[in-house]
Structure formats: C-alpha cells, structure tokens
Design brief:
Blueprint (H helix, E strand, L loop, with lengths): L9 E6 L3 E8 L4 E2 L4 E4 L6 H14 L1 H4 L4 E5 L3 E2 L2 E2 L14 H9 L3 E5 H12 L8 E7 L3 E7 L2 E3 L8 E2 L2 E2 H5 L1 H6 L4 H19 L3 E5 L19 E3 L6 H14 L1
Parallel strand pairs: 1-5, 5-8, 9-14, 14-15
Antiparallel strand pairs: 1-2, 2-3, 2-4, 6-7, 9-10, 10-11, 12-13
Helix pairs in contact: 1-3, 4-8
Length: 256
C-alpha cells in the first residue's frame, strides 16, 4: 500500500461509546508516535460535546502534528462525512455533517470514517490483511457486530453485516460479544452462534479471509478453533489501536 508518504505523524482519534482516544501515528510503521490520550465520552454524547473533547485531544498533540489533517472514527455509518446512524452515541448525530462540524471546530481538514471501516484499513495496511488480495471481511465483535469490506486492500465503505437478518432476528443481537455476556454463554455455546453467522456471511460473499477484531479478539484461541469454515479466520493484529491507525491512514490520503 502506498499511503505511507506523510512527512510527519498524523493524528488519529477514535470516538467510542465510553471513551475518546487519540494519538499521532507514524504511517511508516503503523505504530503510535506518542502515548495515546483517552478522555471519557461526554454524556449526552452530542456531536458538539464530543467535538470539544476531540479539540482537547488535538490541542494536546498540536506540537507533534503541525498543520496535517486529522482522522476521526465515529460509531456510525458515515457517508461523505455525514453520520447516517448512531450506535452508542446520542441520536442527534443522525444526518449531522460531522466532517464540516469538526473541520470548523478544529480549524483544519478532518476525515471522518466509520470505526469498523477504520479498523479494516489499519489491518490492510499493517495487520492481518496486509498483502491479501481479493475480498477480506473484518468483523468487530463487541456491543454489536461491526464490519469492514476490503477488496484488494481498498475499503468498500459502510457495510453493515452485523445487521443481517438471520433466523428471524438481527444477527448482532444474537451473536455479538454482548449476547454472550447477557445470556452467560460459554465459549462453545457462543461459538455455535458465531458458526451460524460466519457460515452465512461466507455463503453470501465467498471471501478470501475473515478477520475478527474487537476487545474479545485477545481471547481468539478460546473460540476461533471451534469454528468450521472453508475461509481462513484469524484475529486482528492491531487490537485497540486499529481505529486510531486506520483513521490516520485515511486522513493522510486526504492530505496527500
């Protein structure tokens, strides 16, 4: 991938339901150039309130990033910088031009992207999808199921594969990590649900590779070996930094 041409580090900021995390990223290596800063997500998490926290993080790293654009993830479908959904954030995000709002607040170009899409871009650049041709499907297993589609390393944005209807219910309500916790399922019990989900996605898309992200991917050895798929399925490599790194990659493209 030829996106690593920025002269200095690019700031990536990952907006989540509980915390907003940011750090400058060295795009040559895909590693954080400074220790990340985390600030609790304000409640209610309106775009303007979150924008103030994003501005605090940008100010903290201003000496490291010069006038470079900033990459920002949001837990929402994001079309041309406009949020079209709201997961774990205030409903007022829907139809907000987040790109314009944050560009004005920060006084510099920003690139706003869905959080799972950012993780997919990071895995393509530096992680489990690096150098993999064809279609790669990344899924993040957490409160819901986020997804990113990568075709020959390039993002196909705003897939919502967690919202597939499966056996008469929304797939993510049945198979996300939150379902395992809510229903007190063992890993083998949860793996049966994941098997049904990944088999279904596999039959629709015939990908070359599945990547599993989200915090639970740290425990991949407890459930991935229980799955029987024709497609290889591997844990994500960038873990909690994927959103920050992917957002920075996409912002560098904006600036380059």
């Amino acid at each position: 991938m030829n996106r690593h041409h920025a002269s200095g580090p690019i700031l990536g900021i990952d907006i989540g339901g509980s915390g907003v995390k940011g750090a400058p990223v060295d795009l040559g290596t895909g590693e954080l150039a400074q220790e990340r800063l985390r600030i609790d997500t304000p409640q209610p998490a309106t775009p303007r309130a979150v924008g103030e926290v994003v501005a605090q993080i940008a100010e903290h790293f201003v000496d490291d990033i010069g006038q470079a654009p900033i990459g920002i993830t949001i837990p929402a479908v994001c079309q041309n910088g406009v949020a079209r959904s709201a997961a774990n954030i205030d409903p007022s995000w829907v139809d907000t031009d987040v790109d314009a709002l944050f560009t004005e607040r920060l006084g510099r170009p920003v690139h706003v992207v869905n959080d799972a899409d950012a993780a997919g871009v990071a895995e393509a650049g530096y992680g489990a999808a690096q150098g993999v041709g064809g279609l790669v499907v990344l899924t993040t297993l957490g409160t819901g199921i986020g997804s990113a589609l990568l075709l020959d390393g390039k993002l196909v944005p705003n897939s919502e594969l967690g919202h597939l209807e499966l056996d008469g219910r929304n797939a993510e309500t049945h198979a996300a990590q939150s379902a395992m916790e809510r229903e007190d399922l063992s890993y083998p019990q949860w793996a049966k649900r994941l098997q049904r989900y990944y088999s279904y996605v596999e039959g629709l898309l015939w990908p070359e590779l599945f990547i599993v992200g989200g915090g639970i991917s740290k425990k991949a050895d407890k459930f991935l070996p229980l799955l029987d798929l024709r497609t290889p399925i591997v844990p994500a490599k960038l873990r909690n930094f994927a959103g920050i790194v992917g957002a920075a990659c996409l912002a560098a493209e904006l600036g380059g």
